[in-house]
Amino acid sequence: MKQVQWFPGHMFKSLREIKEKIKLMDIVYLLVDARLPFSSMNPEILKIVGDKPTLLLFNKIDLSDRKTLDYWIKYYEDMGFYTLLINSNNGFNVDKIYSRSKEILKDKIERAQAKGMTFKVIRGMILGIPNVGKSTLINKMVSKKVANTANKPGVTKSQQWIKINPHFELLDTPGVLWPKFDDEKVGFALACTGAIKDDTLPINEVVLYLINYLKKFYPKRLMERYQLENIDALTEVEIMDLIAEKQGALLKGGFTDYDRVYQTLLKDTRNRMLGPLSFDHDQTTL
């Protein structure tokens, strides 16, 4: 795969605005996809955050392989991050974000009070890549739609302040990627989960990577979902041909309709039809 670049103009602007606004924040919330805690962590954002108090939020935990997720939780906690598992769709642990923030900022609040200052409002910035669930999370936190959402990347295009409660305000920001993915595995992982637009990478390459990955780490799931047997010796294309037969994704003459197979595999992957997955199994695979 050639070096991937996907960096629209609004993302460059967003990075600049994040650098300007972050010094005004009490705390930063980094939202990552629990299926790919490494690949969905923007290295440019990490540089900007620096030593600012940061709560790392693992979202979409219902879609993630918990055993592998536990590895990454420890990985980031060893780096000094505070962590919290959440699900922005059903609200799991969302109500704990504010109380967790107060715990993290306890020393800062006490120092302010010791100087006779009133620490009235916690101001935070929520950061993450496209389609990681920032707007859905904010809507869940305020129990109404205040941020635009869609199951595709790049919906939020500008920053906006959201008042969560009288003592808690969040700055919602557009999803930001980094200018280029030097590691092709990161690009493919983002593509498989829908974090980047489907036309960013050749879809056939994405699906070939996906099948190879599932064959390596989740062969039983792949076989059970598509009623396959003995796939060890099969190529990715041969597996797609078998899936096409099972799913009836055939053109006239009995030829495989690869476009339909591509869409089936991506949809099933993203909608948990293959079970909870991880696309960042451990550092040795990166």
From TrEMBL:
Residues 12-179 form the CP-type G domain. GO terms for biological process: translation. The keyword Transferase does not apply. InterPro entries: G_CP_dom, GTP-bd, GTP-bd_ortho_bundle_sf, GTP-bd_ribosome_bgen, GTPase_MTG1, P-loop_NTPase. Keywords: Cytoplasm, GTP-binding, Nucleotide-binding. GO terms for molecular function: GTP binding; GTPase activity. PANTHER family: MITOCHONDRIAL RIBOSOME-ASSOCIATED GTPASE 1. Belongs to the TRAFAC class YlqF/YawG GTPase family. MTG1 subfamily. Required for a late step of 50S ribosomal subunit assembly. Has GTPase activity. This is Ribosome biogenesis GTPase A. The gene is ylqF.
